[in-house]
Amino acid sequence: MPLYHHTLAGCAPAPLAHYLKALGILRLVSEQADPDARGFWKDETFHLVTSLSKDQIERFFLDTYAPTPIIAPWNGGSGFYPKDTKEGIDPIRQSVLPRFANYKRAIEAASRLVGCAAEASKNQDKEKLISSLRRVWRGPELEMLDAAIVISQDGAPRYPSLCGTGWNDGRLDFSNNFMQRLVELLLPTQKSKVASCALLTGALFNDPEKGLFLDKKIGQFLPGGAGGANATTGPDGKSMVNPWDFIFMLEGAVMFVASLTRKTAINSPLASAPFAVHPSACAYASASKDESAARGEQWMPLWDAPVTLGDLRHLLSEGKVQLGSSPASRPLDFARAVARLGVARGITAFQRFGYLERNGQANLAVPLGRWQVKPQPNQDLIDDLDRFSWLDRLQRSARDDNAPASLSAAHRRIEDAVMAVCSRGDQPPQWQTLLAALAECEEQLVRSGKFTKDKGLQPIPPLSPGWITAADDGSAEFRLAVALALQASDASGRDGIRRHFLPLDKTGTRFAKAESGLAHDPAVVCLGLDPERDLIALVQRRLIEGSKGAGTRLPLVAAYGATAPLADLAALLGGLLDLQKVTELARPLMALNRRDSALRAALAQIARPPAANAPPPLLYALFRLACLPWPLAIGSGEVPIRCDPAIIGRLASGDLPAAGDAAIRRLQASGLAPLIRHATGDNLLARRLALSLAFPISQRDATRLAQTFTKTGKTE
Fold first, then answer.
1. If residue 314 lies in a helix (H) or strand (E), which one and from where to where?
2. pLDDT of the residue at 290
3. Which helix (H) or strand (E) segment is 39 a member of?
4. Which carries the bigger pLDDT value, residue 569 or residue 124?
5. Phi-psi bin for 360: left (phi > 0), alpha (psi -120 to 50), beta?
6. Contact 73/167 with Cβ under 8 angstroms?
7. What is the DSSP string of 367-419?
8. What is the mean pLDDT of residues 499-525?
9. Band of the pLDDT at 190, cuts 50, 70, 90?
10. Could you tell me which of 330, 372, 338, 333 has the C-alpha nearest to residue 354?
């Protein structure tokens, strides 16, 4: 038997109506015409492989297709009550065509249970009606019911978002409109029969000459054709829909049978359709804190290998994506699982849809982007943010009604950034964006101290060294950020600089708290308002803490392999670098776990510029040698140099000549003879020299500076 390959150009991954239409066509052809039919997605189009020719497919739908009995007698407007529209239900009841036999039986069974009721039942009566229908219905009508409603353990109905609230959406009853479209297309007059055939060809193959559209309602499934205010050039637009699209769309929706999922975070169970998750206003263009998506999101699977209806049913029956040992329940979790290939085999991508309020309070299935299923590197690093439930706790707190707007906005930026690295995890700029978002969030936690304390929020948890490799874009800004972040009082990593940015307790990993919020700590001198001011304040604070009797050191010692290259410092002094970027990246990198054995290996992978590139100016050598954390190594001996805090104070105030004179005297008192006799420059250069001392250099580079820029060093 020959096989035909049909390109169903009328079926696309988005909008949702066209996606569901593809599944509906595969389902109906497989169940009623060709059990071996297969379907797959390619080039944004659904492809059908079947033994039916194009003409046979069209004849099947026009002449023999038996519709699924989609009825909703629990809804007002469903056709079962006196005030309801009868244009669909009555002709089907009266039809003698075999294709409507199952439909008629389902309607009659439901009518006996509805009885002579004047209107749809509510509350407990509605629950009893649904339970009774579940007992008497079998086959396709029961499958239709399970797609729209699931009964929770407390007996209350729950409604998966795909089917609205039980095959209706507000005043639009899907089931009644479905029956009306069937009557129009399958019980037509001779004149309208021609139109039905043309509409079918347009729906299946997107034939431009036959793609007719009628003013019919479609609800949430086709936002572009839903009509309403501002839908066209005038004040209001009609809902223009191919009625076959409506039929195929609901036939496809039947496949998404819901199941009961118990969430530990809430007391009541939720009805969950396959691949449905809680909503999150992140990673799409119109996302905002005011976004309303109470019905959640659904990620529709795409595949590029031909599958049978049985294979597809099996995929949808599982209907879940795993993140570790737990099912993904949020878009963030879903994206992370997709990036790790934590999905069923054979899926190549997911089309993300959000059931959002648009055009007033209308709910529309809005496409929110495409997510390719392919492994993204470094995804295990996101697990660091799950430590101590940090990310989950932050999410719950940011959605609190009393959450500061700035904190909620910072949290959304974190979600956007995490979604970006899940999509493009091989690009360092995406990881740097995430680091910057973490830094901003941490700042907001400090500024909202009382809320932070009340919610038990904490600083960024310890990060793995892999963050260095993932975020390394080869830039001087990143190298300086790493060097700045990993400084401590000594080479062992004791007493890092993070406590100058955050009020920390003795553990150095949690916030110090007071009765009114976070504790006030005089050591916190870097406030995140101005990077230049913060870096100078860091140097001044460390000088104060480094005073020991007659000797003063600048206790800013680099981690092994994390010193600042002299060429990068030269670029910094020349105003060629983005200082804001340096501090933004350094803030979260201060959370790096210095005890991790992999840290040295990660630092060794950072590309460093050649030592001969752009040596720093003579003035830098003067002030750097006058402010060192350890004795200067010259030849086989050491030269202790006591640092004068007044040097930094004068640089900070812009008095470069006075600061230079003090530095020259200090070096001369230590036995060094600098080549420079007097320092001159403007206020901007003076402050850049002061902040440059916040970046540690290696002892080898310090010796090289002494040998190059002092007479004593040259003679050694």
1. helix 309-318
2. 58
3. strand 38-42
4. 569
5. left
6. no
7. EEEEEE-S--TTGGGGGGGGGGGHHHHHHHHHTSTTS-HHHHHHHHHHHHHHH
8. 93
9. low
10. 330
Specify the 3-state DSSP secondary structure of 710.
strand
Query: Is this structure's pTM higher than 0.70?
Result: yes
Contact (Cβ atoms closer than 8 angstroms) between residue 308 and residue 295: no
What are the pLDDT digits (tens) for 389-444?
999 999 999 999 999 999 999 999 999 999 999 999 999 999 999 999 999 999 99
Tell me whether residue 308 is exposed, middle or buried, using C-beta atoms within 10 angstroms of its C-beta: 0 to 12, 13 to 18, 19 or more.
middle
Give residue 289's pLDDT: 61
Long-range own/partner contacts, residues 572-575 (CB < 8 A, 24 or more apart)? 572/476, 572/480, 572/688, 572/692, 572/695, 573/616, 573/617, 573/620, 573/685, 573/688, 573/689, 573/692, 575/684, 575/688
The size of the chain, in residues, is 716
Encoded tokens for 589: 């990198």
The model's confidence at residue 259, banded by pLDDT at 50, 70 and 90, is low
Whether the per-residue pLDDT at 252 is higher than 90: the answer is: yes
Domain ranges in the chain are: 4-64, 260-374, 382-604, 618-715
Provide the token pair at 244. 């076959």
Side-chain-side CA neighbours of 390 within 13 Å: the count stands at 20
State how far the Cα of 355 lies from the Cα of 368, in Å rounded to an integer.
10
- pLDDT band at residue 265 under the 50/70/90 scheme: very low
Q: Which of 424, 415, 413, 425 is nearest to 380 (CA)?
A: 425
